[in-house]
Amino acid sequence: xxxxxxxxxxxxxxxxxxxxxxxxxxxxxxxxxxxxxxxxxxxxxxxxxxxxxxxxxxxxxxxxxxxxxxxx
Length: 72
Description:
- The protein is an alpha+beta fold.
- It has 2 helices and 3 strands; from the N terminus they run αβββα.
């Protein structure tokens, strides 16, 4: 079956009204706290600035290879 994050996971998250979508961001690593995912560190593609966002819930829905890279 065909799965695409923008048309499934992201669309469902947008319907909740509690989603902040950050464009031009390249995920660098999953930020961990007490053995659990606490956020994402990313690089702003246009300014090359390193940034980090944290949240109560972290959903990783990158492509197969990118999800694996981020988890390692």
